[in-house]
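User: Batch of two.

Assistant: Item 1 of 2:
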Amino acid sequence: MNRMATRLRNVSFVTLLGLYASSACAQSPAEFINDASAQGMADIEASRLAHQKSESKEVKDYTIVVINDRTTANQHLAKIAKQLDLPVAPREEVVEKAKALMPEVLEGTSFDEAYAASQVKTTEQAIEQLEQTAQTTDVPQIKAFAEETLPKLQNHLQMARALQASR
């Protein structure tokens, strides 16, 4: 639990650094796809862990929605990359980036509380990135992806806030 606690403590900082770095200069389509894929993978893995560890039906129901939506989004990103013939990072590199983004549980709080709090923060950050991308990209497929994915992430955020309030 100590290793997991350390990871969850640092995720907000790491994620914020990544988002600020990416917003400082416009991302290329390949960079966006790699970053969004890594964020999606991190969200999927954190939700899988929460699904295994939590005894709460609310949390388990939420994790299923997140896993399904983020898996679909990552599959869509892979199709876009292929359509645009974009050079994308090797899977291992994306997995390593995802590991760095995985939420950490703060010590002194329950796992469910920490998971809900991390989901609120990381989902808010993902929404900000997609909103910025939707406004600045000139790639129609990426703009469509952002516009299609935003409502799902906004739903995740509402659900995560409800989970957080109930803890």
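Item 2 of 2:
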Amino acid sequence: MGKTILIVEDEVSIATLLQYNLEQAGFTVLLAHDGKVGLELAIEKAPDLMLLDLMLPKLDGMEVCKELRSLRKNIPIIMLTARDDEFDKVLGLELGADDYMTKPFSPREVIARVKAVLRRFTTPVIEEIKTGEKLYEYGPLKVFPERFEASLEEEALEFTPKEFELLVYLLENKNRVLTRDQLLSAVWNYDFAGDTRIVDVHISHLREKIEENSRKPLFIKTIRGLGYKFEEPKK
């Protein structure tokens, strides 16, 4: 059985079209036509990815996204909306969405985006640590990229897929200054040219999770006028 995609879309014609094309591409599809049912299905069924409309009855997409993230449900979320408004885009990403598509879009485009997100964020379950498995360890911070796992002071950390991808990219480029445009290209790699606030929002989220004091970060340093750099804290 293919990966399960939850579509939360109140326009029945759009939902049906997406369902048909995703099923043709080998996915299992769950449908909800309002935010309340969508939230309940997301919690109960734990789909592999969620296509979430912004404007929904009962609970809008922002509220659904916010509630899922507050419950530490790290389901990848692609927001769908008829608006082409930068404020909505950034707000949705601030609340924990991983991607954003503006209507109208082609089913082919949606399927390509779904596959790209799943390819980046679906990792195999590893029963034991394999010899040579990649581990980033800096003081109290440990990150296992292949397992989508990280801990701080031996306490497990929870990330959205996009937050984790950004963290791993920073680790892979330790001590290098990375501009916001470089991070946009490497981590988001489409559609967001110029939306550098998206990078700032995700850096802020990372700092809240891995820094003892997010206002005085030890790991992720801001390089004024340039971008960000991951550093190992000085002993």
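The chain has eight helices and twelve strands.
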